[in-house]
Specification:
By secondary structure, this protein is of the alpha+beta class. Helices cover about 35% and strands about 20% of the residues. An eight-stranded mixed sheet has the order 26-27-28-29-1-57-56-55, with no helix packed on it. A five-stranded mixed sheet has the order 42-43-44-45-49, with helices on one face. Strand 16 and strand 17 form a beta hairpin. The longest helix has about 35 residues.
């Protein structure tokens, strides 16, 4: 991989006549979604690189064209479905000007190659607009009322424009003559996809035989076109969907040559000519080659036509020598770029590839792959380093070889067996080329990326989208098999329905197992398990973490999945969990777990103590090791750096990726290159400076950390969510546009992001570009019918003619649709007349036939009399009677049935089925009526009410049919009521449930079913889950209570996280006897109240739980300590929120310890030792993370209050060792956070008389020695900062400067001279220090003797002698040496990786000096460091590390367990105080301090201590 950023772009837009173009200077651009991407072709070593993106359109870009006029500024133009045409400055990628002159969808665009500032565009209604950019002028033409498909301006004459239409018409217009049509070129009978002018003027280049064109009309349009200089001597080529290419003569105005596309043999067989294939026929006429023409073909092939051959035209196929280089699907656009030595042809295709072809050899030079959907997942192979798998929403997987030197975009595509969005990917940890994938339709499969075989698909599908995949050790039942029968690792998949399946990779066609069963059995869980949303196995396979929909994270121990801890930190759905890698310099970091959710905050927890101790009962963790705040939207992905310790990158919906330093809790850099919401991120496994990210902008970006300008994510109310909604919102259309036949709809389908989460994980996302194959194949077959006449074919009734007395039988036309003219009634009378309106006739045809002329009525009487008096009906009489159907009312029943049948048909065709049903009821055919009405979907309440007349079974059938009909009409409640009428209770309940009418379904089930029926519980649970997902937590809790699941009800109530919700959840859990859950919610509620300084409310909540007595004591001490600090240091501890203190928090004259004990006794009734011990046992199992400089003051003070409570409880039970350890924890916590003032206050409050009374009880206890050291450490600095303001002794040294330069003001700190002067080395400084300090002692002694009579005795540093500890100095020196060697080893590993990276590109670098200079100038800082440092071999470092570790093992464990102040730092401070004031430092202590500095100050320890001392 090179040092430059890279990207995979979105796919070019399909079905556009000109969505890509090439410009001067090797520029190439193509439209992709709402943008245009620009490439530079053929400069430098790389064959191309992406210049940038033209951003400004709000809908699909339908056209793009360059200005081919060379000038100081390169221009281009683009058209879009948003109705605008924009002109761009290519260099700056900014809009120069734009116009919105089109009122309809723009379908074609071209920049005139002859006129510098002319842009011609056409739309679907046939309007052509010529726009002159420089003078901001325009002209409108309407040559033909047809849909324009393509436009091409003549390269030879500035006024000629060729236009191709949807129906196959091609015209040439002259824009200087108001758009007059010079030629109408008829010959094609389908869409014109492309038009190309011959590059040479004149018609002598082609030899045309007259017999070839005998079928062409000599005089176009039936009239003679006057010859003009404009129309002479030029050829025009057109490509059409009718599978032909035609060459036209502009001088003659007719076709001179027709080329028929050949049916090429492809893999899988030839093309059947009888089957109409999808086709887009684009053409390109090479520059300077008038006898050659390039065209596309059926399956993506490119053809080079030789126009000089007569008879059967000869065509040559591109890339015949290499297999798989051609496009695999149809090609949309062709254009060429002229480099220094050759002409290159560029093509874009439906296969989402941009290909470059050498026109000399007809071979493919390079391929740029692109993406047609959201980038949901990124995964680097752990075996084949550098292989990046990309899961995309276009139903394909890309595997990008990021290490390829010859091809920066070496991508292999996999699509077989997928057929839906790829939402998750995971490589097998050891098997090369084995890639697992999950899709949005719940499919899980495995690909072998080194073969062309279709993937293996798991026979067990998820019901919803697959969120994540993970490889881990098998768990029961797979783990119960014999060693030879079970795989080393199995595949786990987590999906939107909230379950995790375990798949056996050896038997994917077998059943996958739900691990929830194992979790329930192992941990004896009876309540409902939370819905899982994320899974992550620790690298060593010992533990597994599951993220849940309620925000909790559960950690299980393999192989039986024993629950060892629950992290209750997030309160929203968990999207990402990642374990720290195992190969860092600090092994403890491998127990770090980072997690991100919908609440925009990343938490890091250290699970080392939990994993190593394996507690018997699950531990609940509520405090993070680190908190990373800064993102403003939900976190979608996390990735640890494999090159650093504690470095993390996060992807977020705020549109940025953020790199964090976890150990320092600091943001390092922020990447803002994407235009959409980030969905995934991965750190490069080979380059520490490279990160790959994918987003919903259809892009994958490789970006460099060192090149980013921002440190933190963007803040403020400007959210990318709102911006994307604005951009994706289509402009309102005045008129509804017709969809182009065979062309894509301009509006693309809005889809949901597949992560069940906000889907459950969020919805209403932007659109995905490109169409599916089905969309592309859909072609409109309907013909346009003028005058708005319906295209439906109306049914005709038979006509009837009367019988005459003779042989003549005139026909009588009968129109069953009797139209009665209506008069316009006054409005005030219309209502009254409506009431008097006559009812519609039920026999209108018969009535109409009885109102004809007198002659016809007389003829009816004659026919009827003949029928009545004839014994037998002859054929003529029967025919006459059939034609006169209204006479059936007066003859027999058969004739009456015929009359009723005709009347019924008339009612149905006139839209009156109710009248038809009445007729059938009169006839007595009720069963037929019901069946016919059911088939037509015309059942009514009246028909259903009459159905029992037809029998019981027919009534049941009718009610069921009516219920189905009502469902189609979305009347589900009414349908359920009808099902209840036939006692189908379960079907009615299921119908309502499936259509989300849960309230009605529960009401019916409660009223009609037994109370213990399981369907009731299922209804409550299902409704509760939906309400919980939508945020209606109180209603969801009611549902869970109805399902007798109080545990889930309490959890969902607490999900909101506010005080009222947590309080209610705690009370509910207490009522349900879930005491552990109740206490957890009460504690969280108290913490929320504590955050707003409401101690009164917090105590009220805690006192409801007997098991939280210990926390009551902690909150009590916290309140007293906060009140004390607020009074002592109001500026530092005063808060903006108004505090709510108890009355006993008011300060009294007694000591702090006495006040604490008094309040505990009076308020909480603590009297006996057993009560103190019980409270101590409640609190001792709670551990909080160590403090850092970034720990919040409120959080720090609460943790310290917890430690101090343990100390007081231990003291009351006379457990002095425990008391000292707890007090030491509070002191070191304030020390680690850098809050020296707080440490001093703790020592003052809890050790007002020093440590002497503890020394008598504990003696040489290591914890006590450490506490005494910190106490002395505070006294030491207190003494230094409050030195007496007396003239300081000025020490003169003849040879070198004195190591200390005194200062006259307290609070200022002095520096060792070598810290500022590079001329004095560390050993030299120590020598000077030892030489000078004896003189200081002598002068100090003399001065002390002179002033002894006039001044009081100065305080001494004898109490600080405990700080001069030989053993602790040795221990600290060893620890620092180990750290230094580990850092050196880590730097060597990083340098080795960089060297390996550079070695791969060295051969190319030697050929290209510019690349070589880039490689050696990539990191000047690291080179300068390497020049300064002496190289150390790996063997030497290993030897140092082993010696240091061996020495470290020799120290007693109790010494290593408890912290101790920096000994060298204390020595420096004491020596400085001794040099400033006489009598403070004894000669023995001075000598000990000097010896320690000389012994351990040769390494970095001295430098570090000097820096601390000088700060």
């Amino acid at each position: 991989m090179g040092p430059e950023p890279r990207m995979l772009t979105p796919s070019p837009n399909w079905y556009c006549s000109r969505s890509s173009d090439a410009g001067p200077g090797g520029l190439f651009g193509f439209a992709a979604r709402t943008s245009v991407y620009l490439l530079q072709i053929g400069l430098g070593q790389s064959p191309f690189h992406v210049l940038g993106e033209l951003v400004g359109h709000t809908e699909r870009v339908s056209g793009f064209t360059f200005s081919h006029h060379v000038g100081p500024i390169n221009f281009c133009a683009s058209s879009s479905d948003d109705g605008t045409v924009k002109i761009w400055d290519v260099e700056n990628r900014t809009v120069v000007t734009e116009h919105t002159l089109h009122q309809n969808t723009i379908s074609a665009l071209h920049w005139s190659p002859k006129v510098k500032d002319l842009i011609v565009s056409g739309d679907e209604k046939g309007i052509v607009i010529c726009y002159w950019n420089n003078r901001n002028d325009s002209q409108h033409f309407f040559p033909e009322p047809r849909t324009i498909f393509c436009i091409t301006c003549s390269p030879h004459h500035e006024d000629l424009v060729a236009i191709g239409y949807k129906d196959g018409m091609v015209i040439i217009i002259d824009i200087s003559r108001k758009g007059d049509i010079l030629h109408r070129l008829r010959g094609h009978d389908d869409e014109i996809h492309s038009i190309a002018w011959c590059p040479l003027l004149g018609e002598e280049c082609l030899t045309i035989r007259p017999e070839e064109n005998s079928d062409e009309h000599e005089i176009p349009n039936g009239k003679v076109v006057q010859q003009t200089p404009v129309t002479k001597g030029c050829y025009l080529a057109t490509g059409s969907k009718d599978q032909t290419i035609r060459i036209w003569s502009c001088s003659k105005g007719r076709g001179v040559m027709t080329l028929k596309l050949p049916f090429l043999k492809r893999r899988g067989g030839g093309v059947d000519p009888t089957v109409k294939e999808r086709l887009w026929l684009t053409i390109f006429w090479p520059t300077g080659q008038p006898t050659q023409l390039v065209s596309s073909c059926f399956g993506g092939e490119l053809l080079l036509w030789d126009l000089t051959h007569s008879g059967k035209r000869k065509c040559t196929l591109f890339s015949t020598s290499s297999e798989g280089q051609n496009h695999s699907r149809i090609v949309f656009n062709l254009c060429s770029v002229q480099t220094e030595d050759k002409e290159l042809l560029l093509s874009i295709s439906m296969d989402r590839d941009v290909k470059c072809w050498d026109m000399t050899t007809l071979e493919c030079c390079w391929t740029l792959p692109s993406l047609g959907g959201f980038v949901y997942s990124l995964a680097f192979s752990p075996v084949d380093m550098g292989c990046l798998a990309i899961g995309v929403g276009d139903g394909m997987i890309r595997v990008w070889n990021t290490l390829s030197i010859k091809n920066n975009h070496d991508v292999k595509t996999f699509w077989q067996g997928i057929k839906s969005k790829v939402t998750s990917l995971s490589w097998h940890p050891t098997k090369e080329g084995c890639l697992a994938f999950g899709t949005d339709d719940g499919k899980v499969g495995m690909y072998d990326t080194y073969s062309n075989k279709p993937p293996q698909i798991s026979s067990t599908y998820h019901k919803k989208t697959v969120y994540s995949l993970a490889w881990g050790p098998p768990v029961p039942p797979i783990s119960l098999g014999r060693d030879g029968d079970k795989p080393a690792v199995t595949l786990y998949s987590c999906a939107g329905e909230g379950i995790i399946l375990q798949h056996n990779p050896w038997k994917l066609n077998g059943e996958a197992y739900d691990i929830n069963k194992v979790i329930r059995d192992t941990n004896t869980i009876k309540y409902k398990l939370p819905a899982h949303t994320e899974i992550s196995w620790k690298a060593d396979g010992t533990v597994m973490a599951l993220g849940n929909e309620d925000g909790s994270i559960e950690v299980f121990q393999a192989p039986n999945l024993k629950l060892i801890c629950t992290i209750q930190q997030h309160h929203k759905l968990v999207n990402a969990i990642r374990w720290h890698h195992e190969h860092g310099t600090n092994p403890e970091l491998s127990c770090l777990i980072a997690s991100g959710s919908n609440n925009a905050v990343i938490y890091v927890h250290n699970l080392k103590s939990v994993i190593e101790s394996t507690p018997e009962s699950p531990v609940t963790i509520t405090e993070p090791f680190r908190t990373l705040s800064g993102h403003t939207a939900k976190i979608t992905s996390l990735a640890w750096s494999p090159h650093h310790d504690g470095r993390l990158v996060s992807a977020c919906y705020d549109g940025t990726a953020q790199v964090w330093d976890i150990l320092r809790e600091e943001p390092l850099c922020n990447y803002r290159g994407h235009r959409g919401r980030l969905l995934c991120v991965q750190w490069s496994p080979l380059d520490p400076d490279s990160v790959f990210s994918g987003a919903d902008d259809f892009c994958v970006h490789k970006w460099l950390i060192s090149m980013q300008d921002h440190t933190r994510p963007p803040q403020g109310k400007k959210s990318i969510e709102l911006e994307k909604k604005r951009l994706s919102q289509p402009k309102p259309k005045i008129k509804k546009k017709k969809k182009l036949t065979g062309k894509v709809a301009t509006k693309q389908e809005v889809i949901d992001v597949v992560e069940g989460e906000d889907c459950t994980k969020d919805s209403s996302l932007p659109i995905e570009n490109g169409l599916s194959d089905q969309e592309g194949e859909e072609e409109g077959q309907e013909q346009e019918i003028p005058n708005g006449i319906s295209s439906d074919v109306s049914k005709e009734l038979p006509s009837y003619s009367p019988i005459s007395s003779g042989f003549e039988k005139p026909k009588i036309p009968i129109n069953p649709k009797v139209i009665v003219p209506k008069k316009d009634l006054p409005k005030e009378k219309s209502e009254a007349l409506a009431k008097k309106k006559k009812a519609r006739s039920i026999l209108p045809v018969s009535t109409a036939l009885d109102h004809r002329s007198k002659e016809e009525l007389h003829q009816d009487c004659l026919v009827l009399a003949t029928v009545k008096h004839s014994k037998e009906l002859n054929e003529d009489l029967a025919a006459s009677l059939n034609e006169r159907i209204h006479l059936g009312l007066f003859t027999d029943r058969t004739a009456l049935y015929r009359m009723i049948e005709v009347e019924g048909k008339s009612h149905l065709e006139n839209g009156h089925p109710d009248l038809f049903h009445q007729l059938m009821l009169w006839k007595g055919d009720l069963k037929g009526v019901l069946q016919a009405a059911a088939e037509r979907g015309e059942l009514t309440d009246q028909l259903v009410a009459m159905a029992p007349v037809a029998g019981y079974q027919m009534w049941l059938w009718t009610v069921e049919a009516f219920a189905k009909q009502l469902c189609f009409q979305d009347q589900y409640v009414k349908a359920a009521s009808h099902l209840l009428s036939i006692h189908k209770v379960y079907e009615a309940v299921e119908l309502l449930k499936s259509n989300h009418f849960y309230r009605e379904a529960i009401a019916i089930a409660k009223a009609r079913l037994r109370p213990e029926d399981p369907i009731l519980k299922d209804l409550y649970s299902s409704w509760g889950a939906i309400l919980e997902r939508d945020g209606h937590y109180a209603m969801a809790a009611k549902c869970y209570l109805g399902a007798t699941s109080a545990y889930d009800a309490a959890k969902v109530l607490a999900k909101k996280g506010d005080v009222a919700s947590l309080r209610t959840a705690a009370e509910l859990a207490l009522i349900a006897e879930e005491k552990e859950l109740s206490s957890s919610f009460s504690f969280r509620c108290a913490q929320e109240l504590l955050s707003v300084r409401n101690w009164v409310g917090a105590q009220e909540v805690l006192q409801q739980q007997e098991c939280l007595l210990g926390q009551c004591l902690v909150f009590c001490l916290h309140e007293l300590l906060s009140k004390h600090l607020e009074e002592r240091q109001p500026s530092e501890w005063k808060s903006s929120s108004f505090p709510s203190y108890h009355s006993w928090a008011i300060r009294t004259e007694s000591s702090f310890m006495e006040r604490v004990i008094t309040v505990w006794k009076s308020t909480f009734g603590l009297e006996t030792t057993e009560q103190y011990q019980a409270a101590f046992q409640q609190l001792r199992g709670i551990e909080y993370p160590s403090a850092t400089g970034h720990t919040l003051s409120k959080q720090l003070l609460f943790h310290i209050s917890h430690d101090l409570t343990l100390a007081v409880l231990s003291q009351q039970t006379t457990s002095w060792p425990e008391a000292v350890r707890a007090l030491l924890a509070a002191v070191t916590r304030s020390y680690d956070s850098g809050n020296f003032t707080l440490m001093q206050e703790i020592c003052t409050l809890f050790l007002p008389k020093g440590c002497d009374h503890l020394r008598e009880k504990l003696g040489e206890e290591p914890a006590f020695k450490s506490l005494e050291a910190f106490f002395s450490y505070g006294q030491l600095y207190d003494l230094w900062w409050n030195l007496p303001r007396t003239p300081l002794i000025q020490i003169q040294c003849v040879a070198d400067p004195v190591p200390f330069n005194g200062t006259a003001s307290s609070g200022e700190q002095n520096c060792v001279s070598d810290a500022s002067s590079p001329e004095v080395t560390e050993p030299e400084a120590l020598t000077q220090l030892s030489d000078v300090l004896p003189q200081v002692a002598i002068l100090s002694t003399a001065l002390e003797q002179d002033q002894r009579s006039t001044e009081k005795k100065q305080p001494t540093l004898s109490a600080c002698e405990v700080l001069i500890s030989q053993m602790h100095a040795d221990l600290q020196s060893t620890q620092k040496a180990i750290t230094e060697v580990q850092e050196t080893l880590a730097e060597m590993i990083r340098q080795h990786q960089r060297n390996q990276l550079c070695k791969a590109t060295m051969n190319s670098a030697e050929e290209d000096p510019s690349l070589k200079s880039q490689l050696f100038s990539e990191n000047p800082d690291s080179q300068s460091k390497e020049q300064i440092k002496e190289p150390v071999s790996l063997a030497e470092l290993t030897k140092r590390l082993s010696e240091a570790n061996k020495k470290m093992a020799g120290f007693p464990e109790n010494i290593k367990t408890f912290p101790f102040p920096d000994v060298l730092e204390c020595c420096l401070v004491m020596l400085h105080i001794g040099s400033q004031c006489s009598g403070y430092l004894s000669l023995d202590m001075q000598q000990q301090a000097l010896e320690l500095l000389q012994k351990y100050g040769k390494s970095r320890v001295y430098k570090r201590s000097s820096q601390i001392f000088c700060t």
